[in-house]
Amino acid sequence: MIRAFDALTLPLLRRLDAEDAHRLAIRGLRLVPAAPPREDSPRLAVRAFGLNFPNPIGMAAGFDKNAEAPDALLRLGFGFVEIGSVTPLPQAGNPRPRLFRLSADEGVINRMGFNNEGAEAVLRRLAARASHGGIVGVNVGANKDSPDRVADYVRLIEIFAPVASYFTVNVSSPNTPGLRNLQQGEMLDDLLARVIEARERVRTSAGDTPVLLKIAPDLTLNELDDVVHVARQRGIDGMIVANTTLARPKTLRSSNVDEQGGLSGRPLARLSTRMVAETYVRVEGAFPLIGVGGIDSGGAALMKIRAGATLIQLYSSLVYKGLSLVDQIKSDLVSVLRRTDRDSLSEIVGADAAQITAEDWPV
Fold first, then answer.
1. Which of 74, 133, 150, 283 sees the fewest Cβ atoms within 10 Å?
2. b/e 22-32 (16+ beta carbons within 10 angstroms → b)
3. Which helix (H) or strand (E) holds 47?
């Protein structure tokens, strides 16, 4: 059924402006039948951050910015959904056009700028679906013109703790000026200290909500050393590797590669996989990683896992492969586990990390 849906809708959506197509896709998810998803193979079950995931495939932040369709996405087979990025106040984002397909490369460039309806509207939707179950994380960010960006993150932790399965602290979007500076040294230490303090402050009323940190793939290895050190010292629960890149690989063939913004999709695959492996060897098992960037097949998903990802996320690849990609990846992963006589993906997490970090740097 989903394959037929993709065959019908993908050609239509590709004729539309990229952002208009995205908006139509969100509206179309309202038509997904309100039936439970097909049960996943027990081999795909993952426990991470104290949460039980039915499968390791998540919808990355950026697709459902305003929590309009998390339950529809879960019914379509995702193991978890991350909504946002959400800022305390509504934000229009950058001027359009700000979302571009790189069709020849199966990539996407965006400079959205944290456009969202704000915390109040998103909280209302998440509270209304709180009894539905399923893992729905909240990706939090700061308003562009905020006088105290760290205070924005703290406020969002306090607001969403009762309804978030986990938090992602997004300091790695390239589309809010100065935001990536929060990945640096003392600023990151102060941010994570205050975020964890806020989480502990509301624990009694809201429960224990995992806090993850999402980083850029453009960090130097020395910067990554510092980020992982601070993350471990502050006791965060995990990291997401990685956000979009400002780099433009020389292999890109599309005519619009010079558009400003973050690049995602297939062109990001090698860099993000390398960053997953580099992060994995530095974390030394202190917490799990979510790998994201260029996952468009079962093989690409397996590569991220073997690089060190316990869970994976995708978004841009759906523009080209459609929603049937989720079932395809799950089927491929189960086939690999059966063929190698393994009971779970945990047995291969990080299996290739050391080898990947010894390879030439992807360009």
1. 133
2. beebbeebeeb
3. strand 46-48
Pull the structure tokens for residue 104: 């020849």
SS (H, E, C) 162-192: CCCCCEEEECCCCCCCCHHHHHCHHHHHHHH
Expressed in angstroms, the distance from the first to the final Cα of the chain is 39
Q: Which residues are catalytic?
A: 173
Beta carbons within 8 Å of 294's beta carbon, 6+ residues apart: 264, 265, 266, 267, 268, 269, 270, 272, 273, 300, 316, 317
CB atoms within 10 A of CB 114: 24
Sign of torsion over alpha carbons 88, 80, 70, 330: positive
Average pLDDT over residues 96-106: 98
Question: Is the model's pTM score more than 0.90?
Answer: yes
Contacts of 287 by beta carbon, 8 Å cutoff, 6+ apart: 49, 231, 232, 236, 237, 238, 239
Main-chain dihedrals φ then ψ at residue 171, nearest 5 degrees: -115, 20
Element (H, E) at 82: strand 80-86
3-state secondary structure of 84: strand
According to DSSP, residue 306 is labeled H
Confidence at residue 38, expressed as pLDDT on a 0 to 100 scale: 85
Distance CA(29)–CA(27), nearest Å, equals 5
Quickly list DSSP for 15-39: HS-HHHHHHHHHHHGGGS-SSPPPP
Q: Which residues pair with 53 in a beta bridge?
A: 46
Contacts of 94 (CB under 8 A, 6+ apart): 111, 112, 113, 115, 175
Specify whether the CB–CB gap between 56 and 37 falls below 8 A.
no
Handedness of CA 117, 120, 123, 128 (dihedral sign): negative
| Structure-block tokens of residue 129 | 């679906």
Q: Which residues contact 203 (CB under 8 A, 6 or more apart)?
A: 209
Q: Is the pLDDT of residue 5 over 70?
A: no
